[in-house]
Design goal:
Helix content is about 45%, strand content about 20%. The protein is of the alpha/beta class and about 290 residues long. The protein has one domain: Rossmann fold, CATH 3.40.50.2000. The strands form 2 sheets. The chain has a 9-stranded mixed β-sheet, sandwiched between helices. The protein has a two-stranded antiparallel ribbon with strand order 2-3. Helix 3 crosses helix 4 and helix 4 packs across helix 5.
Length: about 290
């Protein structure tokens, strides 16, 4: 019970940085590898997936900036929802090395506790570092004193440190959308210290549940020589103190409820029920 209470209190304090406009300038900058827009044939449309669903309402309210990777420099700079969108151009080979071979090929299985692929030492760390640096550099072109930069997921674990080292007045958050493993699993990564130091460049570090927080703090203590305050969930790393919080990502429930009750969805439901009669439907969703 104490762990649950402390996690709830830490989450509330950490989320103040994001949800209370009076604590920051109006400018909110979101960084993620995948962006809010994708090209389908000749048109740019809203991307699918949980990240866009979770973040768009906040960006819409704050009219902020979304920085994402792209292989197409013609990506729109303004979304249909009004916030700005800036692309980090990535070449095909660089994108394959950074995304397919390193982020998804090494980090994703390691963070999920899956068996590591062979020849981990040969993974393209330099490309991962270069892309993180490119994200930081483009973000800094748009950032100003007091801005809140919210970095997302394992693709951009080095970006918080690069941002803070270059421009300390920024307030930086990093959120992990996947699990964080126990130290014995994270120890298999040759770049464990560099990755942890990158994340600890953030002022606030967020996870889905308390177990991931405990795993992260243990990793920081063992592999980055960090000093822990477990009662407050503070980690003092080489760049200063980071607050670690539990902040599960949700969805805009009111919007979803309104959509369910809309006439178009109700009509579609009736049509579907008539077409399948008494058969069962198994629905699968991929991101």
């Amino acid at each position: 019970m104490d762990t649950v209470r402390s996690s709830q209190e830490a989450s509330a304090r950490g989320l103040d940085l994001i949800t209370r406009p009076e604590l920051a300038r109006d400018n909110l900058i979101v960084l993620s590898y995948r962006g809010p827009m994708q090209r389908i044939r000749e048109q740019w449309v809203r991307s699918s997936g949980g990240l866009v669903t979770a973040l768009e309402p906040l960006l819409r309210r704050r009219r902020g900036l979304w920085v994402s990777g792209s292989d197409d420099e013609s990506a729109p700079v303004t979304s249909s929802s009004g916030y700005q969108h800036c692309s980090v151009p990535l070449g095909r080979k660089q994108r394959e090395a950074f995304y397919s071979k390193f982020a998804n090929g090494v980090l994703w299985p390691a963070l999920h506790g899956f068996p590591m692929p062979g020849q981990v030492d040969d993974a393209p760390w330099d490309d991962y570092e270069d892309v993180n640096r490119a994200f930081a550099e483009i973000t800094l072109e748009h950032a100003d004193f007091g801005d809140l930069v919210w970095v997302h997921d394992y693709h951009l674990m080095r970006a918080p440190l690069l941002l803070k080292h270059t421009y300390p007045p920024l307030r930086v958050g990093w959120f992990c959308h996947v699990p964080w493993p126990a130290p014995e699993q994270f120890a298999l990564l040759p770049w464990r210290r560099e990755l942890l130091e990158g994340v600890l460049g953030a002022d606030v570090v967020g996870f889905h549940c308390a177990r991931y927080v405990e795993n992260f703090m243990s990793c920081a203590e063992q592999f980055a020589d960090a000093a822990l305050n477990r009662s407050q969930w503070h980690v003092r790393g080489p760049s200063g103190v980071s607050r670690v919080i539990v902040a599960p990502v949700g969805i805009p429930t009111q919007e979803v409820a309104a959509l369910v009750d809309s006439s178009a969805v109700r009509a579609g439901e009736r049509l579907l029920r008539r077409s399948v009669e008494n058969r069962r439907i198994v629905l699968g969703v991929t991101g």
